[in-house]
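Q: Here's a chain of 180 amino acids. Please give me its 3D structure as tokens.
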Amino acid sequence: GFSLDLWASSGTDFKPNFGREIDISAGWSNQVFGLGLSFFDLNNVLSTETTDIVQPYVEIRSTFSSGSHSFTPFIKVDYNLATRDQAKNSASDIMVGLKHSWQINETFSASQRFRVLHNDGLFASKSGFVTRWDIGLSAEMTNQVNLNLSVKNSIPGKSLTDREEATAFGLGVSTNFPLS
């Protein structure tokens, strides 16, 4: 089906930095194939003076279930097209990973996603491999509203001397709007 996602973040100091952004994504997917387009409004949000990213993507996946657990191996390819200095700032990502979801009970669910990606040098950085791991816990507050906690970790390969390990913590609310 179709999806639309709006996501925003800020550093704890609320000053302009790369933790401050607004992301808008639209996509279509079925159980095996997904494609979409995202727009990342980066540092100095809502400004036309800074470089942002437009990202088309395609993903192939297959889900296997066992009891209250589901496992989804995937491969995803995206292209990060910079809105300024495209030749220097744009880059592609190729990632392979595994998603795991666990419906703990009627209210709580947990998820994790592990992936290895190769980035060929976004914002003129070095190209190389990055390992990412996300873990989350979700509580269904109503039929359409969930409270979500998350931890995301990104570890650059040793050859990426211009990048550092980063961990992000999240708290959010998600909702869905059924079309029928």
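Q: Can you summarize the key feature?
A: The chain has a mean pLDDT of 88.
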